[in-house]
Amino acid sequence: MRRLLIALIACLLAARVGANEAAPASADPALEARVMQIAAELRCLVCQNQTLADSNAGLALDLREQMRTMLREGADAAQVRRFMTDRYGDFVLYRPPLKATTLALWFGPLALLIGGIGVLWAVLRRRNRLGAEHFEPEVIDTTNEGVTT
Amino acid sequence: MKRWHLIAPLVLFVLLAAFLWRGLRLDPRELPSPLVDKPAPAFSLTRLDDASRTIRRDDMLGKVWMLNVWASWCEACRTEHPTLVGFAKTGTVTIVGLNYKDTRPEGLGWLARFGDPYAMSLFDEKGRVGIDFGVYGVPETFVIDKQGVVRFKLIGPLTPELIATKIQPLLKSLGDA
Q1: Structural domain boundaries in chain B
Q2: For residues A62-80, average pLDDT
Q3: Any chain A CB within 8 A of the CB of B137?
Q4: A7-97 in CATH: which number?
Q5: Which residues in chain A are closer than 8 Å to B126, comparing Cβ atoms?
Q6: pLDDT at residue A18 greater than cutoff 50
Q7: Would you call A89 and B32 a contact, using CB atoms and an 8 Å cutoff?
């Protein structure tokens, strides 16, 4: 918990520091746009709920610089992503890849939905087959009490 | 059938509670490193105390060693440092420091003040080698075996408990390999 708090403060400080100095953006706007486009789908490991594009933490600045260098040398987006996952794992990807360890992540919600529909269907079907004696008789309210207008 | 109806919510509740309880204990900053059981990334860095001496990954082949990433600006490294100094005195393993995004005078000053547990420190001024090692939260510690394969990675400060329960058993198993 304390580490989390420290990380949070570090992120806030980093954001403040970043605000004071101009980000070392490259002179080439097209390259910068590509860096930002790829970085928008990568997680900043220091501030875990920010993308690499949003974050001004030291590591995010370094990694963006690294991406610039790679793109300038002709790497494509897939190679840049590979560079990141080789070092930091699939966790850096905001779109996790589909593989054995992420099956539950991808299909868990669908399985829950289907399971829920199944249970609902079974309950309704059973109820449908029950005779009227299993239910409370419908009471028709004739007194008008409790009706608010 | 009737009884199952009564028990189901309880089972669901216990299951949920177990998941949440476990969740409380997980540290979201601790990620499994893709580097474990892979060859350590190649590097070529100068020593912190001697800019003319270059150390490469392959210079370290043939012995088990520990890489500890630190910086003079890193608060948690201060917390960790006495543990590391104590562990170095036991002479169990060669500890190499990776001085991460620091300056030579500040790094050396820090070691002079708080003690130097490292056989040597490598100077990674721009943090480029740190990136290759997937460093994102200093201090970090790696154990690398004789074949140059990363066998263990820790994010955050080493503690005497971690050394006793994780590092020492691992070193023992690697030493004879």
Answers
A1: 32-175
A2: 92
A3: yes
A4: 1.10.8.640
A5: 62
A6: no
A7: yes
Q: Range with the lowest mean pLDDT among A37-51, A54-68, B50-64, B102-116?
A: A37-51
Q: What is the CATH number of domain B32-175?
A: 3.40.30.10
- The pLDDT, as a whole number, for residue B26 is 76
Radius of gyration of chain B (CA): 20
Q: What percent of chain A shows pLDDT beyond 90?
A: 29
| Minimal CA separation from B25 to chain A, in Å | 10
* pLDDT tens-digit map of B135-170: 988 899 999 999 999 999 998 899 999 999 999 999
Q: Looking up tokens 């980000």, which residue turns up?
A: A23
- A-facing residues of B in 156-175 (CB < 8 A) are 156
A45/A23 Cα distance (integer angstroms): 19
Q: How far apart are CA B122 and CA B100, in angstroms?
A: 9
This model of the complex carries an ipTM of: 0.77
Whether B148 and chain A come into contact, CB under 8 Å, resolves to: no
**All structural domains of chain A with their residue ranges:** 7-97, 101-131
Task: Express each pLDDT in A98-137 by its tens digit.
Answer: 888 788 888 999 999 999 999 999 999 988 888 777 777 7
Residue of B2, B73, B131 best to disrupt the A interface, most CBs of A under 10 A: B131
A97 touching chain B per CB within 8 A: no
Q: Does B133 touch chain A (CB under 8 A)?
A: yes
Nearest to B29 among A3, A66, A89 (CB): A3
Q: Is B23 within 8 Å of chain A by CB?
A: no
pTM metric for this prediction: 0.73
